[in-house]
Amino acid sequence: MKKILTQSIFLFSSIFISCELNENFSPPITGIDKEYSNLQSLKEISRKFRGDIIKFDTDITTYGYVISNDREGNFFKKIIIQDKPENPTIGVEIRIDDTNLNTKYNLGRKVYIKLNGLSFGKNATTFQIGIKGRNSINRIGLHEYSNFIDRSSEIVEFTPTTVKITDLNDDLVNTLVKINKLQPETKGLTYGNAINTNSENRFFNNCETFQTIIMQTSGFANFKTLPIPNKNGSITGILNKFENDYVISVRDLKDVLLTEEYGCNITPQKKNLTDIKSLFTGNETRITENSKIKVIITSDLTHKNITNNKAFAQDLTAGIALKFSDTHNLNLGDEIEISVGGLKLNRQEGLLQLKLKSSNIINVRKGRIPSPEKITIEQALSGNFESKLVEIHDVQFKNNTKTYGGMNTLTSDCVNSLTSYVNDNATFATNKVSVKKGKITGIMSTFNGVRIYLRNKTDIKFTENYDCGANNNDNDLFFSEYVEGSSNNKYIEIYNDTGTNIDLSNYQIWGSSNGGGWKSARQLQLSGNLAANKTYVISANKSVSMIIDNSDLSLPYESPVHHNGNDAIALAKRNNIGIFKIIDIIGNPDDNPGVAWDVAGVAKATKDHTLIRKLRITKGNTNWVSSAGTNSSNSEWNIKEKDHYASIGKR
């Protein structure tokens, strides 16, 4: 309920030479309050606004109660009024080209604004009254504003609107609000910046909703160098909004009542990671419940493949990436409790992260590292194991000539590929990758695609023989000829150098387009038998008759042999567990060279050329770089000009 104070009328017979003005003093009212014939509320005035500035040319008067106070320097050349002392429906900023306005329009004073000659507009979410500019509301002149603003004898005490941060809305802008259970996000700060006169934003956390609000303090405020209490309590102030953030500005330090013990998470409720991750909305999400989690650190800081502002952790239900705004010294196997109320969840490069500070950790002790979950490489690629410790069997590095540093490709069938990444600063980054195959342990992660995080070299336990094809010393079928000629003149030739008849049902031809990889490749299942030392030719069915007449199989579009110069082709063989693995390749399935690949030093040789395997080659090669070579001496291929078909079927 509002409390109204009235000011008696006095007649002064003496002249005051001087007086000291303070917040309890205002010039006396002489005469009785005026009566206004066309009186309209601020809400009625605001309803006239349709997006364009309104300039008044008739006698209309509005009114409101002054809620601002520029005595402490935190408000400048304006007074802010709201339409009622309590439960206001609107607040308006009156722009005035003068200072010390508190001496005329003191806190709680009811004022009347004669609008004839003034304008009403809106700057973002803020309603304003002043002089019309080109596209804005300007200040009322120093010598004019008293002609437009009358002071009433009525002075009230306000009841600020008590509100939660979740309930803030644009209707409360420029009104007096009170928010309880606030505390500074960072201890030890002052209200403003002592170095310069820039306004300063300080962030306050709310212990009810665990959301944050900004307190903005002018660089000219008298209290800017004073410390913010490291306590919890309420703040009263005038609400504003800048872009998407609500901001509160206090009139003086009487508005700041931080007197209770600091801390929002005194008795947090225990939750599991699945519960916490389910709160994520798809955009950055603040956790607005008083909760804590207990997790085990699964990443390994000591081997430097992760920085000290990141970590992975998991409980019995899920795993999560931790992103610290400071640094930590958490070790593999540490069991930690994290107070998560007020923290944020977000995705960065596809990876869900919990953003925190080391001070959010309640407790640290030695725990037991969880057993890795055994999955296949196909399951790993599903993305369903994000941030969890896993173990994958029967994998190998596709290129076993590289070091661990940077990106590598792991595969179990020489087709499905899982990326691993090792930081160049990791202790094992310069070690050569294993030339064997076996099991690998790591944490599933995401960086614009699924990848596995390797903690240290002991995560790789490869003891079995490599079998992606390039290291297979047994003779088998291989590509003996490749043609990409005029128009539809295209074919591939396969040669049997095993010395025995071969059942072709154990072989497939794969075609990958434009660097699309093998996962989306066209596949052709072969059938029949291929005699020893014989060729098998597969062509496009619209090739010239010479090609068709010498083909064992002619295929309509679209097939693996309807290749252009930038399309990779592979020969795959079924292994003893029924998985097809590549044994020979032409081109790189994960690379689009534009037009074609260079071979034997010949530019763009896989387009408009015939490639014939040299007679010294008796098996396939899954390393295209090695197969193509850089010159005629180290290449496995002889290059013929376009439409050379004379050697078809004649290995």
Structural write-up:
With 651 residues, this protein is mostly beta strands. The chain contains 6 helices and 45 strands. Strands 1, 2, 3, 4, 5, 6, 7, 8, 9 and 10 form a 10-stranded mixed sheet that branches. A hairpin with an 8-residue loop joins strand 4 (78-82) and strand 5 (91-95). It is elongated, with a radius of gyration of 39 Å. The termini are far apart. Residues 1-31 and 469-473 have low confidence and may be disordered.
Number of helices: 6
Q: Please compute the radius of gyration using only Cα atoms.
A: 39 Å
Portion in helices: under 10%
Q: How would you sum up the global shape? A: elongated
Low-confidence stretches: 1-31, 469-473
SS elements, strand count: 45
User: Distance N terminus to C terminus?
Assistant: 102 Å
Strand content: 35-45%
